[in-house]
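Hi Y.,

Following your request, here is the sequence exactly as I used it, all 665 residues.
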Amino acid sequence: MKRYLVLVLVLCLSLISRAQVNEQKLSKKQLIEKADYYFFKENFGKALELYTQLMEDYPKNHYIQYHSFVAYHLSTGRGSDMTPLKEYEENEGITDKFYNYWLGRIHYGRYEFELAERHFQAFLDMDIYKTNEIKKESEQLLKNTQRALAFYSNVNDFEVEPLATPLNSEYDDVSPAFYSGHDELLLVSSRPAAMKVDQFQVFYSLKSNNQFSTPRVLRNLGTLDENNTKIEVVNNDGKLFLYKEDNGGDLYFSEPLSSGWSNLQEFNSELRDHLVESHFFINDDETVIYFASNNEDGNLDIFQSTFDPANNSWSSPLPILGDINSDFNEDHPFLSQDEKTFYFSSDRPESIGGYDIFKSEVDPLTGLWSTPVNLGYPINSIDDEINFQLNADNISGFLSSNRLHGQGGYDIYYFHKQGKVLASGTVYNQLTLQPIPGAKVVFHPKKYLDESFTAKTNNFGTFEIEVFEKEKFRAEVYLRNQILYTTEVYTQHDEHHKSFEQNFYVEVPDHFNEETNFATLYQGENNSKPQYEKLEMIGSKFRSGEKVILNNIYFDLHATTFQQESIPTLKKIHQVMTENPNLVVEIGGHTCNIGSHEVNLQVSKARAESVKAFLISKGISSNRLVTMGYGESQPLASNDDEEEGRSLNRRIELRVLNQTLSFNK
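Below is the corresponding structure, written out as C-alpha cells. Let me know if you'd prefer a different format.
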C-alpha cells in the first residue's frame, strides 16, 4: 500500500512538473506575442525591452535576435554599428518579407540615403502581397529618401559643429542664450540636478581660457516642463526671459546680479493668461513679442503683440503679417538684430524632416513678410531643428537639434559661414599607377562627420569639388560601393589660389563583392496559397494576408447562433475594430458539406450576421461590417471526417475590405 502511495505521489509530482513546464512555455509564447505586438505597433522601445528578456532564455533564437536588432536600430541604437544586424540578412532576409522595409527605414535614419533608396525600391518591386497602407507608405518613404539624397548633396556655405562636453550632455540640451561677447552661456537642460524626472532647469556656464565651465543650475529660477523650455537674453539690459505656467501662463524675467541672478519677476500683467505663450521671442527694446500658439484648426501659428508707449499697454495678439503662417505648424520665432529677417521652425512640406529652420524677409514698404525659404543643409536635417538664433554678425549662430550622432536627445550646435576652396586631384591604382574612373571621393569635416562633400572621378580619373577651406577632413575613396582608402586631409592653400590638389593612391582588390539584389532576396512566400493572419494583426499595415480564420467561434451543426465559448474571441474582434477605427471587414460564414447548397448558404450567412450583431451591440458601426455566406464552397480540409475536416470547415473568417491609415512624410 505504501509503495502504491509513493508511486501515485511520484506520478502526481511528475504531472505537476510537466504542467509547470508547459505553463512556462506558454508564458514564453505569450511574451513573444506581446513583444511582436509592440514591434508591429512600432513601439520599438517597449518591444526591445521584451525581446531582451526573451534573449536571456533563447540566446540563439534567430527570430528574437533579428527583431531585437531591428527594434534597437529604430530606437535607442540609431546610428550604431549595423554589423550584427547585417549578419541576419542570409536567413531573415529570405524569410521576412519586410526585411527591405525595415532596412530602408534604418538606413534612412542613419543618413545613408542611397542604401535606403535601394531597400525601399526593392520592397516595392517584390512580387508579394502588400497592404495598400504599407505600399503607399513605402512609396512616400522612397520619395522622401530621394528628396533627402538631393537635399544632403547640396551643401551650403554653413559649417555646423556640436558644442563640446560639458555643454552638451546625454540629456536634452536646448535653448542656448548668450550674453554679448559670448563668454557667458545659459541653456535649458534635463540633465539631473536634484530634480524630478522629465523636468528642465536653467544652467549657466562661464568661458575662461577658451573653455566653458561645467554648467551649474540656477535653482532660484525653478523648473520648466518640456513645453516651456525657451529662454532668451535681451542684451540691452541683460534680462533673462522665460515663460512659466503661473498666473495662467505668464512671461517672467530675471536680472543679472554680482552674486548670480535675481528671483523671477512678472514682466507685464497684461500678458497673462495665454496672451503670450511659451515659445516666444522678445526684441532688445522689449517692444515686440512674437510667440507660437494654436490657431482654430489646432496647428501652431506665429502671433505678435506690440507695446504702445502712448497708452503704456500691449496690443491684443494678431497673426504675424505676410506669408509666414501656413496650414502646418510654425514655431520657435526669432527676429534678426536689424529686424529685417525673421527665422522660425516649421514642418511645412518644404521641410526635409520634422521641423526645419526657415527665413523670411520683410518688405520695407508694406511691412509684410515674404514667402519663407528653407535654410538648407547642414542647418537643417531629416530630424528636428529648433531654437534658431543668429548672432549680430549675421553669419553665425546657434540652434538645437535631435539629429544623428548627438550626445543626447537634443543637443546645441554652433553654425557659421565658412569659405570654400576648390579641391581637385586624381585617384590612381596604387599598383599600376593608372587613373581610376568612376571612383567616389568623399570629404567629411572632422568637426561634423555627418556633413559630406562628394565627387566622382571622370573617364580620366580626375575629380573637382568645392570644400571648406583651412579645414581638417576625413577623406574616403570608394569604388563599386566598397571603401578602398581613408586618410586625413587639411585643405590648406596659398593666399593667391583658391584651390589645392589632392591625389589618392588606392589598392584595388582583384575581386569586388557582388551587390545583393534585394528585390530577389526574399524566398519565403508562395503566392499560390492563401495567406492567413493572426487576429491581432488584421488592423496592421504589416499583416501578411487579407484574411483571419476564427477557429474559436463555435456553432453546433446547422445552428446559426454561436456558443458562449465564442465570447472571448468576439471580444478580441471588438478590440481590434476599436483600436483601428478605419478598418472595414467582411465577416464570412462557412459550413461543412452536410446539407443542401441552398441551406448551407443560408446558414453561413446567418452565422455571419450573428457575429455582426454582437459587434454592433458593442458599439461598432454597421457600415464597417459586411456579411457574406459562402456555404460549403471554400473548405479548408476534407469533409470526409468530423474532427479533422467538417469541424474545421464550419468557421467564420474576417477579410479586410478597406483601411485608411495616416502616415508622416
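Residues 420-506 form a domain with the Immunoglobulin-like fold (CATH 2.60.40.10).

Thanks again,
Q.
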